[in-house]
Design goal:
Elements (H helix, E strand, L loop, with lengths): L1 E3 L2 E4 L2 E4 L7 H12 L5 H32 L3 H29 L7 H43 L19 H11 L5 H30 L7 H27 L13
Antiparallel strand pairs: 1-2, 2-3
């Protein structure tokens, strides 16, 4: 194996490690979780000093496993890259957050930690099922996006030819993360979950459609006006938005403890 800059190569395969392959986004999520928690500043600094390097080590292990699997059989790259790139990274961040909660809240069960562990177990089962389902239908999803895009361009007199076969389109796997988090959230009525899913999935649909349109503008019309915006939206939409949107939906629609405020008599 040889490493030159951000290119890793060996035995007939070579990969470019781009920004999305790093642990930057996972570290950002963990840092936000720690910084906005109620804890001593010294504990926060120590948690960031230990947690962020640990996330980077975990990400390096992920990249190493993807490389080894692809070296063994190049057909495994798509599955291992998508699976570890989405599901494993989310698990890594959630595990770091659970360890942080355990450290700052050493309370016997039942506690927020026990509820978090229960949520992670539900999320693991649901995410695995949704992931396998999405692996089968995501090409049809991309096909539908392309049909809408072709129709829109045809209104302006352009005829697009899009290849019918689509490789694993990992940008759409933000749907897996958001849907799994929403379904795993408890307690909540299914009607509220349905509303959250409808809004969230609709937003992701628009982001994915915008990404496909920008892809055509860049490749067919050589227009890079929206390239930086599209890159930013893809990074946010793929890693950060599913979790932030789930948190907002949870606080907005789902039951949460009420604060007991005592008014002092004057």
């Amino acid at each position: 194996m040889a490493v030159r800059g951000n290119i890793v190569s060996g035995t007939g395969v070579a990969f470019q490690v781009v920004l999305e392959c790093t642990a930057l986004f996972a570290a950002g999520l963990f840092a936000c979780f720690v910084c906005f928690s109620q804890a001593d500043v010294r504990k926060k600094v120590l948690a960031l000093a230990l947690g962020i390097p640990a996330l980077y080590v975990g990400n390096i292990i992920r990249l190493g496993l993807v490389f080894l699997a692809s070296r063994y059989d190049l057909r495994l790259f798509g599955i291992t890259h998508v699976y570890f790139g989405q599901v494993f990274t989310v698990f890594l961040v959630l595990l770091a957050c659970v360890l942080w909660l355990k450290w700052v809240n050493p309370v016997p069960a039942p506690s927020p930690l026990s509820r978090t562990v229960s949520f992670l177990a539900r999320f693991a089962v649901i995410c695995s099922c949704v992931f396998l389902f999405w692996m089968e239908v995501h090409q049809w999803y991309v096909w539908f996006l392309d049909r809408l895009m072709i129709l829109a361009f045809s209104l302006y007199g352009y005829r697009l030819l899009v290849p019918p076969e689509t490789a694993i389109y990992y940008e759409t796997f933000s749907i897996v993360t958001f849907a799994s988090l929403t379904i795993a959230t408890s307690p909540a009525e299914w009607s509220k979950k349905a509303r959250a899913l409808s809004f969230g999935l609709g937003l992701f649909f628009l982001l994915h459609l915008l990404h496909r349109i920008n892809y055509v503008l860049t490749s067919a019309f050589h227009s890079s006006a929206l390239f930086q915006l599209d890159l930013f939206l893809c990074d946010i939409g793929q890693y950060l938005l599913p979790i932030l949107l789930w948190l907002v939906m949870t606080l907005w629609q789902y039951p949460h403890p009420k604060l007991n405020v005592r008014h002092r008599s004057r």
